[in-house]
User: What shape does this take?
Amino acid sequence: QVQLVESGGGLVQAGGSLRLSCAASGTTLGYYVMGWFRQAPGKEREFVAAISRGASRTDYGDSVKGRFTISRDNAKNTVYLQMNSLKPEDTAVYYCAADLSIEISDSADKYEYWGQGTQVTVSS
Assistant: This one.
């Protein structure tokens, strides 16, 4: 019933920027805590960012803090991830996740709903 669709990925050069979007359908996104995770080949899933229901709290992984910004527009049922100063190490599939019962979390197993992911590739 709850569907999350990521978009905005692509190929960029190191130092460039991308903005990812996560659009929800089948529910009201304002009820959910939202998170972004990423996974590169041969590596485990990594926490990127999370945001509370009212956007009063945010959290970031150490590797992206200061470069990425998570935001949400509940009226548009959309969550965003603005990525600046991109590095080749940021190359991964980026996933959007949502959950009703938590307030905010950096643990992937706390989130119930997941999108299919969007590929981000950063060239050197």
